[in-house]
Amino acid sequence: MEEVYVVKMAKFRHDLHSLIRQVMKKYIFILNAINVMAKLLKDKRVEGVLYLDQDTGKLTFKAYNRQPRQSHDRVVCQLENGWLKESPQRYKFYNSVKKDLGRRLVDVVMHRELNAAMHVLEVEEILDRV
To answer: Quick one: which of 116, 54, 107 has its CA closest to 82?
Structure first.
């Protein structure tokens, strides 16, 4: 378990309900305080949840563990009815054809698009080897 720091809250000037007065204490316990304080020192906003801990009965702040956004996929080629993209782990092929063309023509169009995408991949592989 990581260290827990205590931050003193400002006193409230308004007269609140007795229940709220019992809940609100002078201190807020911060979970993962080292990480939270490091973000605050870098002038960053820290989002989280403030709740009453069921076990201890104390007011606790828990910062959200936000993950950095993943990099966008590189568009290898833009097709007539879709695209072919490359991510660090896989190739992604997307094709969208209207239903009213009929099953036979949809089949032909999709195969043509797939063959075009495969041709682009082959050309890229040849260029990478050179």
So the answer is: 116
Return d(Cα 86, Cα 72) in angstroms, integer. 9
pLDDT digits (tens, 9 = 90+) for 88-124: 899 999 999 999 999 999 999 999 999 999 999 999 9
Sign of CA dihedral 124, 125, 126, 130: positive
Q: Is 108 helix (H, G, I), strand (E, B) or coil?
A: helix
28 bridge partner residues: 7
Which amino acid, one-letter code, is at 82?
G
Instruction: State the pairing for strand pair 48-52/59-63.
Output: antiparallel
pTM, 2 dp = 0.49
